[in-house]
Amino acid sequence: MVDKELLTILVCPNCKGALEYDKNAQELICRVDQLAYPIRDDIPVMIVDEARSLEDNATS
Hints:
- Pfam families: Trm112p.
- The protein is 10% helix and 28% strand.
- The protein is mainly β.
């Protein structure tokens, strides 16, 4: 489980915007950039190249 205090200080490394924690998917989501950063072994991977694009999953 990711530390709640850590979640309050993390921001998107790309735009410096707020992130949403998706507990089920184990991801931190940036709605501005439409990116989802994975959480592996309870450690957020805050690397843009490791993020998943949310636009790929958007419905038309």
